[in-house]
Write a structure and sequence with these properties.
The chain is α/β, with parallel strands linked by helices. The protein has 9 helices and 8 strands. The structure holds pyridoxal-5'-phosphate (PLP). The site of pyridoxal-5'-phosphate has 14 residues, from strand 8 and helix 9.
Length: about 230
């Protein structure tokens, strides 16, 4: 495990930065740190779980399926990647939280599939707040129809919003914007909606603007190795 010690040091630094942002913003609660596991070997992920990480963020269906049996099962899984409708059935038996619901079609397919399995999924609507071409996430203009669909469909439960803004010197307008949308449509959400926003690049700012969940990959596990 000695070779994984840098993960403990990274986590400590992240937690310090998060606490500083919490104090700066005058928040009472701290956000949940989701460990984003893409390309990270299961033993490193499990080391992070031993350090107190309780939620894993999974991007790719195949990669998740090849690693899932090796993960310490105590961590909860959030699916955060672009989800093709024909792959929902592969994750539905194991994952009950999908952060990347970004179209009415996907919401309908999620509902049907979880219903078929007799299961339920918590979901977030993923918004493309940066209006980037080619980026996943729904256009913010379509939020009302997504909210109505999510509300009306069986076996999926809307918990909040998620975004992955473009890299930016000042990402605060994106985070502020997501929080504003959750406030504007508060009737669709639980009392304390989930705001999943902020990555290694920008999580302190996201925390200042009310992130309840931050999704951290490289700042925790180091640079991703796509060759393995
Ligand atoms: C990879 C990824 C992250 C984490 O990015 P890092 O820069 O490694 O922290 C967060 N959210 C999503 C949707 C991702 O795909």
């Amino acid at each position: 495990m000695d070779g994984h010690k840098y993960i403990a040091e990274n986590l400590k630094r992240i937690q310090e930065n998060v606490e500083n942002a919490v104090v700066k913003a005058g928040r009472k609660d701290s956000p949940c740190i989701i460990a984003v596991t893409k390309t990270v070997p299961p033993e490193k992920v499990n080391y992070a779980i031993d350090l107190g990480i309780s939620v894993l963020g999974e991007n790719k269906v195949q990669e998740y399926l090849s690693k899932r049996e090796l993960y310490n099962p105590s961590a909860k899984i959030h699916f955060i990647g672009n989800l093709q409708t024909n792959k929902i059935k592969q994750i539905a038996p194991y994952i009950n939280f999908v952060e990347s619901a970004n179209s009415v079609n996907l919401l309908q397919k999620l509902s049907n599939c979880y219903k078929n399995f007799g299961k339920f999924a918590d979901i977030l609507i993923e918004l493309n707040v940066g209006r980037e071409i080619g980026k996943t996430g729904a256009d913010t203009d379509t939020l009302p129809e997504l909210l109505d669909a999510a509300k009306s469909l069986d076996n999926i439960c809307l918990k909040g919003l998620m975004t992955l803004p473009p890299p930016s010197d000042d990402p605060s307008p994106y985070f502020y914007g997501l929080a504003e949308l959750a406030a504007k449509y508060s009737g669709y959400f639980p009392d304390k909606p989930i705001l999943s926003m902020g990555t290694s690049l920008d999580y302190p700012t996201a925390v200042e603007y009310g992130a309840t969940h931050i999704r951290i990959g490289t700042a925790l596990f180091g640079k991703r190795d796509y060759t393995t």
